[in-house]
Design brief:
Layout lengths: L13 E2 L1 H5 L29 E2 L7 H6 L15 H26 L4
Antiparallel strand pairs: 1-2
């Protein structure tokens, strides 16, 4: 799902900062529990305009710096530092394997 290089990012992830700074809606509707995979006649969720938002998706330090996933503030009262470190170690192992797979199978480069 996550591309290795910026050139393969296309419009998968966009920076919506400008949307909010220019008086756009205070909320962007996205229903993460709806999948169109394998369904006929699926309605796509509305596209959100913005510049490509690339970071090293395969680097848990980047996730932590950007406060994504388990590193987000919504987990501050749910996970202790030791638990977050365990998640980070797990992510490092799995992301390295995923990145190697994309290189080998999909022929992606950095």
């Amino acid at each position: 799902f996550f591309p290795i290089s910026k050139k393969r990012l296309q419009d998968r992830f966009v920076d919506v900062t400008e949307h909010f700074e220019n008086g756009g809606d205070h909320e962007i509707k996205f229903d993460s529990d709806k999948s169109g995979i394998g369904k006929i006649g699926t309605e796509f969720q509305p596209a959100v305009k913005g510049a490509s938002a690339y970071f090293d998706f395969y680097n848990p330090d980047a996730w932590e710096e950007l406060q994504l996933g388990v590193f987000g503030p919504e987990f501050d009262d749910k996970l202790c530092d030791k638990q977050r470190e365990a998640y980070k170690e797990h992510m490092s192992i799995q992301m390295a394997a995923a990145k190697a797979w994309r290189k080998r199978v999909l022929g992606e480069d950095e």
